[in-house]
Amino acid sequence: MTAYMANESEPFSEKLRVPEALTFDDVLLRPKESHVEPDEANTASHVSKNVEVNVPVLTAAMDTVTESDMAIAMARHGGLGVMHRNMTVDEMVSEIERVKQADELIIRDVVTASPDQTVREVDEMMGRQGVSGAPVVSDDGEVLGIISGTDIRPYLEVGESDAVREAMTDEVITANEDVTPREALELMYEHKIERVPVVDDENRLVGLVTMAGILQRREYDSAARDEDGHLRAGVAVGPFELDRARAADEAGADVLFIDCAHAHNRDVIDSAREIKDEVDADVVVGNIGTREAARDVIDFADGVKVGIGPGSICTTRVVTGAGMPQITAIAQVADVASQHGVPVIADGGIRYSGDAIKAIAAGADAVMLGSYFAGTDEAPGRVITMNGKKYKQYRGMGSVGAMKSGGGDRYLKDDEDGEEFVPEGVEAATPYKGTLESELHQLVGGMQSGMGYVGAESIPEFKERAEFVRVSSAGQQESHPHDVVITDEAPNYSPES
Ligand code: XMP
Questions:
Q1: Whose alpha carbon is nearest atom 8 of ligand 1?
Q2: What's CA 34's distance to the chain center, in Å?
Q3: Residues 300, 273 contacting (CB under 8 angstroms)
Q4: Does 358 score more than 70 pLDDT?
Q5: What does the pLDDT look like over 118-128, one tens digit per residue?
Q6: Which of 34, 86, 172, 271 would you call most buried, defined as having the most Cβ atoms within 10 angstroms of its Cβ?
Q7: How far is the CA of 287 from the centre of ligand 1 (A)?
Q8: What pLDDT, on the 0 to 100 scale, is given for residue 122?
Q9: Which residues are catalytic?
């Protein structure tokens, strides 16, 4: 590069003609005439070509953010949890299975009783397992009866040593595997029962449908579910982890996220393409941050994820000097991806609901957040108290701690030679926030209000109508509460952010 010297008449070197790149605080949505009430705004969107969600929010694939508890809660509330990969393949498979089985109509892991057990034994067993009834099955799995608290009650004290076969109801109403929730409810209503064993052609137990289970599914009416009614599950896989990708696919994951800090890398792209060829699940490729990177993955990716260094725990930009402010990164990638019908996920840097809806305005179809959700009950890790305030641990996947427990290759380096890691993230704590449900409610409510200010009823309409204005630093200051002392914390605003 030719150095530029003041007073020299030579032109600037090409490299000093630096284009500007913007991030969340640099822009605001231009308010527009609106006939849309915020709660009417429909937030349905896509996270990948074949996976639709009612809430365009994903939780980050980080070991202090998303495991199966978070993924279950997210899918129940309409979004998607992306489970991290700092775990063995077997652990990952059981985490995916946990999500898939969480709201299953037919419970497969059924607590059963044997006809020869005593009433007392079964009563104690049901107490231990937390169930109020159990099918009674023979040694080869044939359903002989069903026993519940109502059957047991008359036997307590006087007939506790009697065999279960004496106390059970032996006229059992059963269903087959094709039963729908409606049919199961009709059976329960007609026969005044609360559980129906599901049997095969030879009357052998294959599962159980319960009234409580059906009512719980109804509570989550905007849940993200697959064609079979199971909750959706996302999972991170390394770009070179073909075996992990195959195992995740077989376990039923809906979306695999190629988990790489810089996916615009020839080897990463070749390997991601190979993974895409091998699996049925959608494959989202990331992270990228430029239109050239988008062009290089768009022919095979089912989605792209954007974010080079915007995250709250990231030090990539200061350690490597590389990165792309997030609004510009999203806009560049979306320019290319939207022409090919490939959904864009904006990953990292979102502190407020306003940032999330700005990301959508810039061209994203959904947003991914880490720190926003790391303080919730559903995130892994325990609550710690410091100076009387509650926190949860939150660490970058490129931090020393996370890399030591297995996540190093996201940052393309390892300590196999015994050399020290060069981290690109920090280990931190984030204020404890309570349930995911209430945090998500605030986030999505704020996003819907943003849609209202722009007069858009749906995400596609919003993307079409939204325009930004550029904000000065005085404008940024004006945007936050100022010239006051905050006396009561708001549920969706913290000056600490
Ligand atoms: P937020 O801002 O939501 O960001 O906390 C979460 C996203 O940050 C990325 N991530 C990292 N980036 N070094 C980085 O440069 C890291 O150690 C690191 N860990 C996570 C990731 O994309 C995540 O979704």
A1: 311
A2: 31
A3: yes
A4: yes
A5: 999 999 999 99
A6: 86
A7: 10
A8: 94
A9: 314, 410
Q: Is 414 or 461 the better-scoring residue by pLDDT?
A: 461
369 lines ligand 1 (CB under 6 A): yes
Mutate to test the pocket of ligand 1, among 23, 59, 62, 259 (most ligand atoms within 8 A of CB): 62
Give the C-alpha separation, 444 to 492, whole Å: 11
Burial class from Cβ neighbours inside 10 Å (0-12, 13-18, 19+) for residue 443 reads: buried
151-191 pLDDT, tens digit per residue, is: 998 988 788 889 999 999 989 999 999 998 889 999 999 99
| Integer Cα distance of 135 and 194 in angstroms | 12
User: Which pLDDT value is given to residue 247?
Assistant: 98
CB of 347 closer than 6 A to ligand 1? yes
* Four-way CATH pick for 119-210: 3.20.20.70, 3.10.580.10, 2.40.50.140, 3.40.50.10490: 3.10.580.10
Strand partners, 427: 395
Q: How far is the CA of 396 from the centre of ligand 1 (A)?
A: 6
Please tell me the distance between residue 78's alpha carbon and the centre of ligand 1 in angstroms.
23
CA–centroid distance, residue 462 to ligand 1 (Å)? 27
Determine if ligand 1 sits within 6 Å of the CB of residue 289: no
pLDDT attached to residue 103 = 86
Candidate from 80, 287, 313, 324 with most ligand 1 atoms within 8 A of CB, to mutate: 313
The alpha carbon of 316 and the centre of ligand 1 are apart by a number of angstroms equal to 9
| Residue 350 CB–ligand 1 contact under 6 Å | yes
- pLDDT tens per residue across span 192-241: 998 999 999 999 999 999 988 888 888 898 999 999 889 999 999 999 99
Give, to the nearest 10 degrees, the angle between helix 89-102 and helix 68-76: 30
- pLDDT, tens only, 47-92: 999 999 999 999 999 999 999 999 999 999 999 999 999 999 999 9
Domain map of the chain by residue range? 18-103+223-467, 119-210
Residue 306 CB less than 6 A away from ligand 1: no
Q: Which amino acid is at 333?
A: V
Which of the pair, 483 or 390, is modelled with greater confidence?
390
pLDDT digits (tens, 9 = 90+) for 326-354: 999 999 999 999 999 999 999 999 999 99
Give the neighbor-by-neighbor strand order of the sheet with 427-431.
383-386, 389-395, 427-431
Residue 349 Cβ inside 6 Å of ligand 1? The answer reads yes
Instruction: Confirm or reject: Cβ of 397 under 6 Å from ligand 1.
Output: yes
SS3 labels along 140-157 = CCEEEEEEEHHHHHHHCC
At the topology level of CATH, where does 18-103+223-467 sit?
TIM Barrel (3.20.20)
Confidence band, pLDDT 50/70/90 cuts, at residue 410? low
